[in-house]
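Structure tokens please, single chain.
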Amino acid sequence: MQILLGLLIGAVIGLIAHVALPGRHLRGAALAPLTGAASAGIVWTALTWMGLGDSPLPWVLAVVASAATTLSLVSLTTRSRSARDAADRARLPV
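Here you go.
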């Protein structure tokens, strides 16, 4: 049952990252929240399977992992999309 809280926290972190980072119009609205929830769920599950479910470590690492994964993916996606759009604009006639 606690994994649902981990998933929810990851999704909220992703939503905050989507709203806070520039280039919102270049990526989908669900990309960041789903990435945050997925990474938090994977980390939570792995740490629970390792027997660390009763410690605060899954909470801390789920938050850190979802923030790191979401921020890097969102930044990379935005830069990639901007570069691809600029290349398309240069290639196509005005």
